[in-house]
Amino acid sequence: MIISGACHYFRTHPDQWRTRLHWLRLMGLDTVETYVPWNLHEPSRGEFRFDGIADLELFLRLAAEEGLGVILRPGPYICAEWDNGGLPSWLTGRTGLRLRTSDPGYQAEVERWFGELLPRVLDHLETRGGPITMVQVENEYGSYGSDTTHLEWVRDLLVEQGIDVPLFTSDGPEDFMFTGGTVDGARATANFGSRPAEAFAELRRHRPDDAPFCMEWWNGWFDHWGDTRHTRDASEAASVLDEMLTMGASVNLYMAHGGTSFGVTAGANYEPPGAVAGGSFQPTVTSYDYDAPLDERGAPTPKFHAYREVIARHRDVPALEEFDEPLLPETTLLGEGTVVPLAGVFDVLAAAGREVTAPGPLSFEELGLSHGLVRYRATVRGPRTALPLSVDGLADRAQLVIDGRVEHVFDRNHPTTYDLEVPASGRTIDLIVESMGRVNYGRLVGERKGITGAVLHERQEVHGWAMTPLELGELPDLSGVGEIAGDGAGFRTFTFSASAPGDSYLDLSGWGKGYAWVNGFGLGRYWSVGPQLSLYVPRPVVVPGLNTVVLLELDDVGAAAPVLRPERVWR
Ligand code: GLA
Prior knowledge:
Blueprint lengths: L2 E5 L9 H11 L3 E5 L2 H4 L14 H10 L3 E5 L15 H4 L11 H18 L10 E5 L11 H13 L6 E5 L3 H7 L5 E6 L3 H11 L6 E6 L15 H13 L3 E8 L10 E4 L8 E4 L18 H11 L18 E3 L6 E5 H8 L3 E3 L13 E9 L3 E12 L1 E6 L2 E7 L6 E5 L4 E8 L15 E8 L2 E2 L3 E7 L18 E9 L5 E4 L5 E6 L2 E7 L6 E4 L7 E9 L9 E3 L6
Parallel strand pairs: 1-2, 1-8, 2-3, 3-4, 4-5, 5-6, 6-7, 7-8
Antiparallel strand pairs: 9-10, 11-23, 12-23, 13-22, 14-19, 14-22, 15-18, 15-20, 16-17, 16-19, 20-21, 23-28, 24-27, 24-29, 25-26, 25-28
The site of alpha-D-galactopyranose has 8 residues, from loops.
Family: Belongs to the glycosyl hydrolase 35 family.
Pfam families: BetaGal_ABD_1 (PF21317), BetaGal_gal-bd (PF21467), Glyco_hydro_35 (PF01301)
Organism: Nocardioides turkmenicus
């Protein structure tokens, strides 16, 4: 019987991995489970990254030191509310590829990536004295497709590359999911939140020889911008855990510690038309707290204690310790808490310089941009009377700027038009397009960002575009951009002083929509629609003394300097 918990190394600052793993063990777990996100490790084709928050081998060594086994889920598709379900946008932006199938173009890239990744994990397999006990083939393939040949190909690739610990698949407990998602030579497991007896009965019908294993026990849930926050009652959840352990089933808590989708790494969902009129794009919030037993900063919650008690009924659990991860002591806003404008976003885009021209608008992927903003500029010829301007194929949001002023905001979920009148001399329009998360589940995985269709004036396509991209995965270089005098959408900064590092939450209530960095570390996206109103600031990014916060505020909602709080703020 395995009692495991999911904790994604890529959602926790690496300096905090050790304590997170320690607390998982104190809860009574014997194993930690993690995905591996391809797009984190290969941000551009052929350029691999295994350092810092991408140092998978360090995470594996720390797990082993803590005495935890590891369940590894290398995908390469991982879902996980992670941008594009972990697939790199430079890959999915290629036209004609059939993702997650036997398409030779897709498989060649997977083979290249696994050829880079798998040799790094071989020494960490249990068969070589390491912690990895099981490795997953793909992820919930039955929720997606029925190309069994591809699933077999992924399985064989893992084996050929030297993975000699047990393989498994995981799927929702539905007939069609098990029939599409399971493969010979890999144990089948089930993903669900409640009613374990029914789910395991379904699993048994399909795989009578596979012992019951809940690979994703959804004991909490994630949140979308503009929606209400999801929580699950601790004692109700604990009783389901008890039910599973009493049956002798193995379980992986999804999540045991959720963490944060820092920077621009959060994913999104999409409800197809039929479920919602016109379909609906639902970007996922920055926090991946998941209402898990260890909260976003790693502190034990009532769920932690409830689960630990349940586990103690089934096996010995380690003695509890005090949780002593420091909270940020009193901070002082410097400069009387004044928020200083750094640079207007239009000026930054103008100074970015990397302008590309084309007759029609290009997508972010065609521009080689992962996430951020693109200024699309074109001149509409006149004279013409006021006619509706619309954006067909928008991902995800566009501010229409005319003569330096935001005149309208286009939103992919609520298509609108703007009446544009053009004088004889013509009119130059700018569309500042922002991407939110890439869809990580369902049909739209791999969709392109930016303007993927056309900008229409009445029925006529506007042609002759100049595009300037601004990457927001890292804090852009703002040197050389003139300071702006007043307000306006743009970068702002303020400083605070801390006597010692500690965890905190940057309270952005009162601000509009944007991005935040502390000492250059990308905390993630914020948005007044909630439900998340504060961003987690991990202790290791705070330094004693002077600390600098940069905000990119897109909606020009100015407010006082945000305060760092010891508690999270949810709507
Ligand atoms: C599925 C996926 C996970 C995650 C959960 C929801 O089960 O396999 O990666 O997306 O849904 O949190």
